[in-house]
Amino acid sequence: MSVTVKLDDLTFGYGAEPILSHTTLELLSGEAVVIAGPNGSGKSTLLKLCVGLLTPWSGRISVLGLPPTDPAARRRIGYAPQRIRGATSLPVSVGEVVASGLVPQKSLFSRMTAEDWRRVAGALEAVDLTDLSKECMFELSGGQQQRAVLARALVSDPPLILLDEPTTGIDQRFRPVIAQELRARAERGRTVVVVSHDPEDFHAVIDRVIDMADDRVRELTHEEVHTMLGRRS
């Protein structure tokens, strides 16, 4: 497996306080990884660094062999943030929101093709939103909006998928469907990284759990994962 994300002695923080300190980490193609840890430990920050929304204080980060700010890298990342931003009065349909995930891969002024709409339909089906594709995005429930944002991150089938609390607000019955969809992506060689307060949602489909606490990043052993989930090894 190749290295998709590499952090080398990376330090970043807000104000004068580091939230990540001399962090080294590699994420590989074909694996599904959960990033766990307490509030304020830097989980969302780590994803934002990988997307290029934040710049490290020191150290290096590469994504798909490139700096995360490189447009060629950004076009190959599917990112779903924790909070949905946008004007609630914007008359945009669910299908259009998902289709916007293809924009970075298309040339300027190019039109959506039949193949593009097929991919949109597939992403909507993966999160069980097919019947709501023509509905106004911001008239949906919070959980339905979250599923649409997840479909947007998946629609281009990118090699790196970064999801920040993707099951927040989503009905319990949809969570196993989403977890299995992410497992299928990993099995096709994609790197799937999920920030989650509740790894229980993904325990059956993940390869690794990375714990973030006290300015450090550490891979949990299988025994520690079982303890975290309240299970016996």
Structure notes:
By secondary structure, the chain is of the alpha/beta class. It folds into two domains: 1-76 and 158-176 and 185-233, Rossmann fold; 92-157, no CATH class. The chain has helices at residues 43-51, 71-74, 94-99, 114-126, 142-154, 175-187, 222-228, and strands at residues 3-14, 17-28, 32-36, 58-63, 77-80, 160-164, 191-195, 208-213, 216-219. The strands form two sheets. A six-stranded mixed β-sheet has the order 5-6-7-3-8-9, sandwiched between helices. The protein has a three-stranded antiparallel β-sheet with strand order 2-1-4, covered by helices on one side. A hairpin with a 2-residue loop joins strand 8 (208-213) and strand 9. Helix 4 (114-126) crosses helix 5. The longest helix is centred in the middle third of the chain and has 13 residues, at 114-126. The radius of gyration is 18 Å and the shape is globular. It starts with a strand and ends in a 5-residue tail after the last helix. 36% of the residues are buried. The mean pLDDT is 87.
Features:
Rossmann fold, 233 residues, alpha/beta, globular, three-stranded antiparallel β-sheet
List the helices and strands and how they pair.
Blueprint: E1 3-14, E2 17-28, E3 32-36, H1 43-51, E4 58-63, H2 71-74, E5 77-80, H3 94-99, H4 114-126, H5 142-154, E6 160-164, H6 175-187, E7 191-195, E8 208-213, E9 216-219, H7 222-228
Parallel strand pairs: 3-7, 3-8, 5-6, 6-7
Antiparallel strand pairs: 1-2, 1-4, 8-9
